[in-house]
Amino acid sequence: MEVEALFNKRYFDFPKPCSLIKHFVTIGTKPNENHLVLDFFAGSGTTANAVIELNKEDGGNRNFILVQIPELIDEKSEAYKAGYKKISDITIERNKRVIQTFEESEKQRNFDKAFKTGFKVCKLAKSNFPRVEFAPDPTKTEQENLALLDKYIQEKEVAFNTLFNEKDIFDEVLLKNGFMLNYRLEQIDGFTKNQVFRAKDDFKECLICMEKSIAKETLKELERYKEQTNFICLERSLDTTMKWNLKHLLGDKLIAL
Prior knowledge:
The chain is of the alpha/beta class.
């Protein structure tokens, strides 16, 4: 599907032909080996369009990552007048429409086998964790800098505990621990005092809880998972006793951030 056909207008001057990119992807990938297609210059999103179409055609499970700087669109252009302020806005909307078109087509033919796919949109942002950005003042003494650090951490933790977006925290923590962008979260039944999730991608999995405190009941409930997988939590959620008990139970499988 080409950009102009999807939008019924010419929003992009020189988009790459989808058929050409499909040809390249076919050469470099196989349908069912979880191959990842990376495009550092996403533009209108033709690469994602091509991967989605190929997966639809051959039942493949290829994934894609597209990277696009927040390049502004000319205010005089038709795209800008239609509400697209950055090139990435067109990238995202194009592939939403590609997926929607396939889904509607499949539902009309056989609802039970409707085409299902999707993508996440991520943007580069500062870390959610407070210690990352502090820099000591070279004009102050060590004790003064320690006091400033303590104040800085307290202020940031207040913001962390009250203002953070839970999804952003999960994304940052799991990506830093080696998970792919297409990880999946599933809440685990049986934990009565904390919300504990299983995070899983095509290669690894772990248990994760990002709440402000870990209850003693959760410690007991983790016993049935102690040989299976890592457990990730916030270090600030553990008092000294809980940290020791979790370390004793899980050993190196405890990851406290």
